[in-house]
Design brief:
With about 270 residues, the protein is α/β, with parallel strands linked by helices. Helix content is about 20%, strand content about 25%. It has one domain: CNF1/YfiH-like putative cysteine hydrolases (4-Layer Sandwich), CATH 3.60.140.10. It contains six helices and 13 strands. Strand 7 and strand 8 (about 140-145) form a beta hairpin. It binds zinc ion (ZN).
Length: about 270
């Protein structure tokens, strides 16, 4: 099904600091350029929201084609707002092979040292953190909504990349996808409470009489720095998924019935 010359994706986003890395390919998508009807129109990446699987697979094909490289295994972590880190090994990837529904395990974070393994994470308001080390080389994708952030899943992924894959934190580059930003991320008091104990820097909060918001990317950045990642190695796409609903699916903005944006990344030889 891959590379059969059908329509390619016209709207593909990449992180500036990572787009010229020799051993990395990555791309992330929003709403535009797929085949799904409303309310998943049109580039929905998830089979778990009520969309037809065959449409989702065509959407995935378009996104993966935009990588400009081919993989031999598509790995998709089942996202449950947990703190599990899944290392996708070369052996299991080879055994799983390619399937559009993906080689799956329940885990919000995936890490790998194996080339040719395409990691896919889905997002609609939650940030995904891409971790890349050109030295090892090694790659990770981490789904980190506020619950995952409160569980320090990104710090755990950095630790696991260090202990299992041999990546030094100071060699890691981190990049954060569009997500619901501080302009729109209204929270109850339990959220800043849960987040503030995970970092050494104070959590910024914006409160007026009507509402209170927090900045998840600021918390994630603090966690990354606490884990040893260098400040100049952190990039954030500051697009707000809820404000920019033309461009991105937003769980909150779409009233809970929505498609999912996707990010894919792979290591190459
Ligand atoms: Zn916003």
């Amino acid at each position: 099904m891959r590379g059969n010359g059908r329509e390619a994706l016209s709207t593909a986003h990449r992180f500036a600091a990572l787009s010229n890395e020799k051993c990395l390919r990555h791309v992330y998508s929003g709403r535009q350029g797929g085949v799904s009807p409303a309310p998943f129109s049109s580039l929905n990446m998830s089979v778990s929201v009520g969309d037809e699987p065959e449409r989702v697979y065509e959407n995935r094909r378009r996104l993966i084609e935009a990588l400009d490289d081919t993989g031999h295994c598509l790995a998709i972590g089942g996202q449950v707002h947990g703190a599990e880190v899944w290392e996708v090994t070369a052996t299991e990837a080879a055994a799983a092979g390619w399937r559009w529904d993906g080689h799956r395990r329940t885990a919000d974070a995936m890490i790998t040292r194996a080339s040719g393994v395409v990691l896919l994470s889905l997002f609609a308001d939650c940030p995904i953190v891409l971790l890349f080390d050109s030295q090892t080389p090694a790659l990770g994708l981490v789904h980190s909504g506020w619950r995952g952030t409160a569980s320090r899943i990104v710090s755990r992924a950095v630790e696991e990349m260090s202990t299992r894959l041999g990546s030094r934190p100071e060699s890691l580059r981190a990049a954060i996808t569009p997500h619901i930003q501080r302009c729109c991320f209204e929270v109850g008091p339990e959220v800043p409470e849960a987040l503030s104990v995970t970092v050494t820097a104070p959590i910024e909060q914006w409160t007026d009489s009507a509402r209170s918001t927090v900045d998840l990317s600021q918390v994630l950045r603090s966690q990354l720095l606490d884990a040893g990642v260098l400040p100049e190695h952190c990039e954030v796409d500051s697009t707000c998924t809820r404000c920019d609903r033309e461009q991105y699916f937003s769980h909150r903005g779409d009233g809970g019935r929505s498609g999912r944006n996707g990010i894919v990344a792979l290591l190459r030889d």
